[in-house]
Amino acid sequence: MKIVGLTGGIGSGKTTIAKFFMEFGVGVYIADSEAKNLMHTDISIIDAIKSLFGEAAYKKEKLNRSFIAEKVFNNKILLDKLNAIVHPKVETHFKNWVQKQTGNYCIKEAAILFETGGNKKCDYVILVTAPKKLRISRVTERDNTPAKAVESRIDNQWNDKKKKKLADFVIENIDLISSKNQVGIIHEILNKDN
Fold this sequence. Notes:
By secondary structure, the protein is an alpha/beta fold. About 55% of the residues lie in helices and about 15% in strands.
């Protein structure tokens, strides 16, 4: 089975594009959601995170996301250590998930696919893009986050120009009808390529 990476910066609309693929019956693995789930359910991950950050990393058995985000935001070493705990477990979980999929291809949606080298494990990569102003607007509305904070997160991710060089397909996600049509075209191409 072909593995297709789906990626894009914050606010680009990856989730919307993933849902369009699901409407075509394609299995979609949302890496970020699965990572969050594993951080709440996998005892070895929980123990390792508590060992790294202390007991305050969890409140009432729930991951203390704001506490951890604050710790790793400007500390690349801590962020790398956290990723070293979580990413291998997510990768194993993904491989097991792929075994249960049917169809010609499945999709792995991951925000930092290129940054982690995850694109090298994909047969194809789809990049979702949108203008910066629109991305900031989407995230401020969705998460009730100040525009400056969103802009800072965008600036900390790889830019689209760099990602486009590595992508096989690019979906400019401005208009939903156009985006869905682009998904349909890519779906046909991927289904034909056996």
